[in-house]
Design goal:
It is a lipid-anchor; GPI-anchor. May play a role in cell-cell or cell-ligand interactions during synaptogenesis and other events in the brain. Keywords: Cell membrane, Disulfide bond, Glycoprotein, GPI-anchor, Immunoglobulin domain, Lipoprotein, Membrane, Pyrrolidone carboxylic acid, Signal. It is found in: Cell membrane. It holds the Pfam family V-set. This protein is of the alpha+beta class. The chain has a domain at 22-123: Immunoglobulin-like (Sandwich). 23% of the residues lie in helices and 39% in strands. The strands form two sheets. The chain has a four-stranded antiparallel β-sheet with strand order 1-2-6-5, with no helix packed on it. It has a four-stranded antiparallel β-sheet with strand order 4-3-7-8. A hairpin with a 2-residue loop joins strand 1 and strand 2. The radius of gyration is 20 Å and the shape is globular. The termini are far apart.
Length: 161
């Protein structure tokens, strides 16, 4: 094997090991706004690009993106925040006309394995309200949360009726 080809193959395999993996996609209502959380496993320091879109009536509509151009009807209503291993889409004034299949697409720069994509069906009447401390829960292990809540549980006097 040609040494140059061998190095190219090794670099390609190593780069494939650095892809972003979407772990979870969830949606909830925050007042009258929709929040879509796209959690991913970060395997590289390369810059991350994203795209949130909705498919309805068999047509894809880009809501907010660093990959392509967002559609006008969503541009003024959509906002995205990025936290450690979490990209959040906020869509203001969410109504039943905004229902559909929401997609989160992530790609790390120089990642040759392709984009990571996950879908979730969003129906307004079936959405739960976002928890006030959900970001804390998302970034804290359940065991630590349980340990921190034990003194509260011990202080509660359970009375049987």
């Amino acid at each position: 094997m040609n040494p140059t080809v061998g190095i190219a193959v090794i670099l390609t395999v190593l780069q494939a090991a650095h892809c972003q993996m979407i772990k979870d996609l969830s949606a909830c209502l925050l007042g009258q706004n929709l929040r879509v959380d796209c959690r991913y496993e970060n395997k590289t320091d390369n810059p991350l690009t994203y795209e949130f879109s909705i498919t309805k009536d068999n047509r894809k509509h880009v809501i907010h993106s660093t990959i392509s151009v967002s559609e006008n009807i969503y541009r003024s209503r959509a906002n995205v925040t990025m936290h450690k291993n979490l990209v959040c889409l906020y869509l203001q004034s969410f109504t039943t006309s905004d229902e559909g299949i929401y997609m989160c697409e992530l790609k790390a720069t120089n990642d040759y394995t392709g984009n990571q994509v996950k879908n979730i069906t969003v129906i307004k009447d079936k959405l739960e309200k976002c928890a006030g401390f959900s970001l804390l829960i998302q970034n804290t292990s359940w065991l630590l949360l349980l340990l921190l809540s034990l003194p509260l549980l011990q202080a509660v006097d359970f009375v049987s009726l």
